Structures are given as structure tokens and as C-alpha cells.
Amino acid sequence: MTAERFATQLNAQIGNELAAHNQYLACAIYYDALTMPQMAAFFYAQALEEREHALMMVQYLLDTDSEVTMPGVEAPTAAFADLVAPVQLALDQEKRVTQQINDLLRTAREEGDYASEQFMQWFIKEQVEEVATMSDLLAVVTRNRDDIADIEEYVARESGGEGADPTAPRIAGA
Fold first, then answer.
1. Contact between residue 167 and residue 127 where contact means Cβ atoms under 8 Å apart
2. pLDDT 10s digits, 148-166
3. For residues 7 and 61, is the Cβ–Cβ distance under 8 A?
4. Mean pLDDT for all residues in the chain
5. Cβ neighbour number for residue 38 with a 10 Å cutoff
6. CA-to-CA distance for 115 and 82, rounded, in angstroms?
7. From CA 122, how far away is CA 66, in angstroms rounded?
8. Which of 48, 67, 53 lies closest to 171, judged by CA?
9. Which value, in Å, is the radius of gyration of the alpha carbons in the chain?
10. What number is the average pLDDT over the span 44-63?
């Protein structure tokens, strides 16, 4: 059985993941409005990934007969000073999510909830990748802020091709 403290914290994380989804949508729309299709597509894909993370957590709670609550989320930041700002915000967000995921793992461990601890391992690995991706993107966008074509080329070259991760938790509704 899932530890109650972990389930409560995981329900809160569902809200955090949905807030990240909304924030990435706002970033995608910003880049879409600037006619930067590669950056827009990257952030639209990131938004879907965050939604999937939330639904993985929903499925885990359902699988463990735990209550699922749908927390409300605040409106995302939608206005940005320049084309570097959304990427900086995304990196900051990924670092914050990393801490939240680490806190969830810590709670599972403290509660002796080994199944939940194992469930969180995939998210730990995922956050390493997410922070690295956003760090690299921030470096490229900062360096090329005056050359949109170079930014678009980088994103086109580096995005996609990962394919589905067979070790990923199940997604509710999929």
C-alpha cells in the first residue's frame, strides 16, 4: 500500500506537472507568435511530456488504490522580455521540479514505501535529462539571441528521434 504522506505529496506533484504543461504551452505560443516553428514545436512537445508525467502519476495512484485529486494550477507566465527569457524560465522550472522529485523519493524512502521509491526512479533519470536539455538550449539561445536561424537550426538538429522509453511508467488513459 502506498504511504499516505507519499500519496498526498504525489497528488500535489500532479498539479506541479500540469502547471509545467501550461507554462510550456505559453512558451510555445510565444515562439509561435515570433514565427520560430522549431522552438514552438520543441515547447509544444515539452508541454505534452509534462502532461504525460502528470498522467503517469495519476496511473500510479490508481494502480495502488490511492485517492487521486486534481489540484488547481496558477496561470503561466505568458509575456517575456526577449527570446532568452522563456528558456531561462524553463531551466529554472526543471531545477525546481528536480527538487520536488527528489523530495518525493525521500518521502517514499522515509516511509519505507519501496514500490513508490522504485516508481520515482524513472523520474529521477528523466530530470537529469530535462535539466541538461534546457541548460544546453539556454546556452545556444543566449549565444545566438540575434541569430534566430541558428537557434532554429540547433533545435531542428537536436530535437526528436528519442522514441518511446520502454522503462517509462504507464500513462493514464493511454
1. no
2. 999 999 999 998 766 788 8
3. yes
4. 96
5. 19
6. 44
7. 20
8. 53
9. 17
10. 98
Give the confidence band of 174 by pLDDT, cuts at 50, 70, 90: confident
Given this model, what pLDDT does residue 173 score? 87
Alpha carbons 113 and 84: distance in angstroms, whole number:
41
Q: At CA 39, angle to CA 38 and CA 43, rounded to 5? A: 115
pTM: 0.94
Residues sharing a CB contact under 8 Å with residue 82, sequence separation 6 or more, in sequence order? 145
Residues with Cβ within 8 Å of 110's Cβ and at least 6 positions away in sequence, in order, are none
Give me the domains of the chain, ranges plus CATH numbers.
4-158 (1.20.1260.10)
Q: Are 119 and 2 in contact (CB under 8 A)?
A: no
pLDDT, tens digit (0-9, with 9 covering 90-100), for 71-88: 999 999 999 999 999 999
**C-alpha 118, offset from chain centre:** 19
Cβ–Cβ < 8 Å for 86, 31:
yes
What is the rounded CA–CA span in Å between residue 59 and residue 20? Answer: 18
Q: How far apart are CA 88 and CA 77, in angstroms?
A: 12
